[in-house]
Write the structure tokens for this entry.
Amino acid sequence: MSDAVFEQVREHLAGVAHEAAVAHGVLALLVEPGRLLDVVRALKDQFGFDMFLDVTAVDWPEREPRFDVVWHFYSTRHFVRVRVKTRVPLADPTVDTLVTLYGSARYMERECHDMYGIVFRGNDDLRPILLYEGFEGHPLRKDYPKQKEQPLVPYRDVKP
Amino acid sequence: MSTQPSRPAPSGAFEYLTTKKDEFVGWARKFSLFPYPFVTACCAMEFMSVSSTLYDTDRFGAALPRFTPRQSDLLMVVGTVTHKQAPILKKVYEQMCEPKWVIAFGVCATSGGFYQNYAALPGIDKIIPVDLYIPGCPPRPEMVIDGIMKLQDRIARDRHPIINENF
């Protein structure tokens, strides 16, 4: 049954999605950042992908464009998942927000902005959610020094 | 002392009294620990296990948790403390009245454990003084009981100034 849905999605998005392969039982679509809203709207309105599961990013430091931004959706009508990916460069890591389609995207976009510095155009509240005010950098980027700390409380002066 | 005015300054007697006073107060305090559980992570499960009937920290007079730092004298930091949480821990510590003791429960509170990254505080002793470290991930209840007993020994041996620095 999931195959049938995937086939329909694939046909519908044939001109838009660069890649549309099924991996681990999930249909993975690669789209241009500019077509993201169209694709997600189609998935939501026509195929019943009405649950926003997550948005995250992948950092490929050697690659240009450097970041994958990855969304996961679930269809409560067909009981299948779909993964949407897009690529953005370091110079302008901006994608459109999905808050207009899924209210729950709001917090998860904040987290993604915390960790990878992806900017979600149209999300007016990108304050730190897991990190704190004053934290510099984005800790899940590969070029963030692994053990760099930014303590809020000054360390005690202890003699060993 | 006053019955024998010919003797020199009664320093020996004073010392004796002070020592006895410290012993007495230490004995009283060591069986009356009021822990404040600052519980942040999975060590909490082990903390519950050691507090409840099977291992029963009540036997050591350290059972009744106080959920305000103002009424407690033993701060038990149970679990990972992140940089974001560090100001809260510091504030809790500063709200406690003297005398107070701190136990770092588990390896994360002791040294950060296997978290060596942007998020975790590498040991709570970076921001507050710690009296006793209980390593382990999580520590066995026996280790916790051993730790509490060691802390009790230390409290019993400590000086307990009440009136001023010397007495």
Q: What stands out?
A: Chain B touches chain A through 16 residues (CB under 8 Å). The CA atoms of residues 34 and 72 of chain B lie 5 Å apart. Residues 35-156 of chain B form a domain with the Rossmann fold fold (CATH 3.40.50.12280). Chain B is about 35% helix and 10% strand.
